[in-house]
Design a protein that fits this description.
There is one protein chain. By secondary structure, this protein is of the alpha/beta class. The chain has ten helices and 18 strands. The chain has two domains: about 190 residues, Quinone Oxidoreductase, Chain A, domain 1 (Alpha-Beta Complex), CATH 3.90.180.10; about 140 residues, Rossmann fold (3-Layer(aba) Sandwich), CATH 3.40.50. It is about 25% helix and about 25% strand. Strands 3, 5, 6, 9, 10, 17 and 18 form a seven-stranded mixed β-sheet that branches. A six-stranded parallel β-sheet has the order 13-12-11-14-15-16, sandwiched between helices. Helix 3 crosses helix 9. The radius of gyration is 20 Å and the shape is globular. The relative contact order is 0.15. It binds zinc ion (2 copies). One zinc ion binds next to loops.
Length: about 350
């Protein structure tokens, strides 16, 4: 099969022949319709090690159709439209058994521990496949596997957002941030979108944001959030992973508020512990999403309450171009099609 093969950091992916996976018992071979191009893949390209040693295939935001099933598979059949979850949980550990499969002790991430979706075919355990309704376009639907459902999990499960609550989304103008904005808005949140890209602040408004703040212009955005909300947001999300912004996002919540850490950083942050105690603040992380989150996210898309924000669709051969566009901040989400 054709695949974009990763040979190691700081070199372009090579589109070439790669062995087509053979399905075993309980597995399904999926013909990839599209795979989203994510910042996580960019981290691997820049040197964060993958669990599977190169040469291997990146890409963890995949939709497609079932091509072949192994022995004992009854849940799906060839031709079924499916999403492949970014995280494949073991189903047996403590966290899987209490319904927190996204932090499974033995999880396999697609395009990291095992070969991913920048290829014509991918093999996964059939039990993990999520059906994709016919109303949702198969290629664009790929981004539900991560870019939509991880923000959905952040808003619904970790923030436990209630209608009417005020929400500050820090880093609202990136691909993930815009999805936090539209999901929180669709679920009744009164959303303030904070970001640096004016055109995407406009898009945030179209997607339901109540107010927008341009972080390039407003030098005291925490004060602005406090003023707009009358004391601070019920919930703040950091989607940037930038330590200074994480600290500002934390400062922007009100007494009793929740702060949700979505962005990734390996750097320490400084926050006031006394404030957490006196004001009964909550800080929660969110890592990907669980199988159950897909059903809610898919229904928001199917019913038209949120949009699939795919800005670029490129053939697999142009995958390095897609990463360049991502790096230059020119995409909300790009997908590649084999
Ligand atoms: Zn991702
Ligand atoms: Zn597990």
């Amino acid at each position: 099969m054709k695949a974009a093969v990763f040979y190691g950091p700081n070199q372009p992916l090579k589109v070439e022949e790669y062995p087509t996976p053979k399905v075993g018992p309980g597995e399904a071979l999926v013909k990839v319709a599209a795979c989203g191009v994510c910042h996580t893949d960019m981290h691997y390209l820049k040197g964060v090690p993958t669990f599977k040693k190169p040469p291997m295939i990146l890409g963890h935001e995949i939709s497609g159709t079932v091509a072949e099933v192994g022995e004992g598979v009854t849940a799906v059949k060839p031709g079924d439209r499916v999403l492949i979850p970014a995280i494949l949980p073991c189903g047996r550990c403590y966290y899987c058994r209490i319904g927190r499969e996204n932090i499974c002790l033995n999880l396999l991430m697609v395009g990291n521990h095992v070969d991913g979706g920048y290829a014509e075919y991918i093999k996964v355990p059939a039990k993990d496949l999520i059906p994709l309704p016919s109303e949702i376009p198969l290629q664009e639907g790929a981004i539900i596997a991560d870019a939509i459902t991880s923000p959905y999990a952040a808003v619904v499960r970790r923030a436990e957002l209630k209608p009417g609550e005020t929400v500050a989304v820090w880093g609202a103008t990136g691909g993930l941030g815009l999805n936090v904005v539209q999901i929180a808005s669709a679920l009744g949140g009164k959303v303030i979108a904070l970001g640096r890209r004016e055109e995407n602040l406009k898009l945030a408004k179209e997607l339901g944001a109540w107010e927008t703040i341009n972080l390039k212009e407003d030098k005291e955005p925490v004060r602005t959030v406090r003023r707009l909300t009358g004391g601070g947001a019920d919930v703040a999300f950091d989607v940037t992973g930038v330590p200074q912004v994480i600290e500002q996002a934390f400062e922007s919540i009100k007494q009793g508020g929740r702060f949700i850490v979505v962005g990734y950083s390996d750097k320490p942050i400084t926050i006031n512990a006394g404030r957490i105690m006196f004001r009964e603040l909550e800080i929660r992380g969110v890592m990907g999403c669980r199988p159950i989150d897909y059903y809610g996210a898919i229904e928001l898309v199917r019913s038209g309450k949120i949009r699939l924000l795919v800005s670029h669709k490129l053939p697999l051969e142009q995958i390095n171009e897609a990463f360049k566009l991502l790096e230059e901040g020119k995409v909300t989400r790009a997908i590649v099609t084999p």
